[in-house]
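pasting for the record
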Amino acid sequence: MLLVDIHAHLYSVKFKEDLDEVIERAKKAGLKHILASGVNPSTNRQTLEIAEKYDVVHPSLGLYPIDALAREIGESSGFPRDIEKFDVDEELTWIAKNKDKTVAVGEVGLDYNYGKDFEKQQKINFQKVISMVEKIKKPIIVHTRKAELDCIEMLESCKIKNIILHCFCGRKHLVKRAADNGWNFSIPPIIVRLQQFQIMAEMVNINQLLTETDAPYLSPYPGKRNESAYVAETIKKIAEIKGFTEEETANNVFMNYQRVFE
């Protein structure tokens, strides 16, 4: 089967010791494309370096919404990792200058789970991202947590052609609204354990579905690190839900990848 992982954090310390083996297992599983996603200046640059090393890896440069708030929230966010301080405008300018090296911009978006007190600034930052993406004409991979409606409304006002909602956890009516807009949804391997993603796979047309891992997170196996090879578990579950063969499902998703990213 031809498989794709459109969202993985390969810079993670959890891959520090065995990234070569992780990529090799992915290739053996059928992965043809892995989009390595950055979230701030340092990981964006690491992502470019990783993509240069592995032929199946392509960069997706981004600004995680909480990282983009680094100057505002300091150490009070409760976010489970250290956040580096940087200038949002400068990093967006850098991403635009490197547009020929990246296949997408992401992950970016809104997160009210950790940044609830800074909704206004988050929207300002996200609008800056949207405006930059409109100019460089790249697909956008969007993170939205407890901010789904605001995110959808902002994206509905933009001119970006290819929008991918990564690990979208909005209510059914918001899934339908986004699907009716023609946007795409990327589903992680944890679909085997979470009904939320099973419902999404049932609701959304196969032509709007993509596969991701969000590795090293959202593993199909409790307590085990996620990695790109596990995309096969997502395909298996979507096929079961849709009533397709695994081969048909993988082929559809691969064609969706080509339509969106190539």
